[in-house]
Amino acid sequence: MPLLLDIVTPEKKIFSGPVENVYLPGVDGELGILPSHIGLVTALQPGVLRYLHSGVTETLAIGSGFAEVTDTKVVVLTDSALGEAEIDEDTVEAAIQRAKEKLASVDHSLDAEEVAYLQGVIAKSTAALLFKRRGQ
Q1: pLDDT tens, 19-54?
Q2: For the chain, does the N or the C end have fewer beta carbons within 10 angstroms?
């Protein structure tokens, strides 16, 4: 019995279909999901999501989010999901640099929400960059 996978961002549904397995970047480490998995809801951290679809392993760099797992379905809600071809290294490096500079600014006028946002940008961008460069 195949596992149904839905990957959804705020902009669109990235993927919806049957898969043999799913590997998610959970906040406590990688989670491997197979059909008949016990139900759970878990937070996701920026990293690589991979799944086996029709005998081919597909991979995406995802941002933070959540996954809901049942014995027959996995729903991934994430703030971003990009394939390798969609990641521009120069743009990602520039985003990391801007966020680091803003965090290091001497005026210390950032509130906790801004600091968390900038740390999230760095984490998501770093995960995308590592994903893009993994085969080089």
Answers
A1: 999 999 999 999 999 999 999 999 999 999 999 999
A2: C
CA distances from 51 to 19, 101, 103 (A): 7, 36, 35
Element containing residue 22 per DSSP (H, E): strand 21-26
Q: Work out the angle at residue 62's Cα, subtended by the Cα atoms of residues 58 and 67, and round it to the nearest 5 degrees.
A: 90
Give CATH superfamily name and number for 3-82. F0F1 ATP synthase delta/epsilon subunit, N-terminal (2.60.15.10)
CA distance 82 to 2: 24
Contacts 24+ apart (CB under 8 A), 62-65: 62/7, 62/25, 62/127, 63/120, 63/124, 63/127, 64/120, 64/123, 64/124
Taking the whole predicted model, whether its pTM rises above 0.85 is answered as no
Domain range list for the chain: 3-82, 87-133
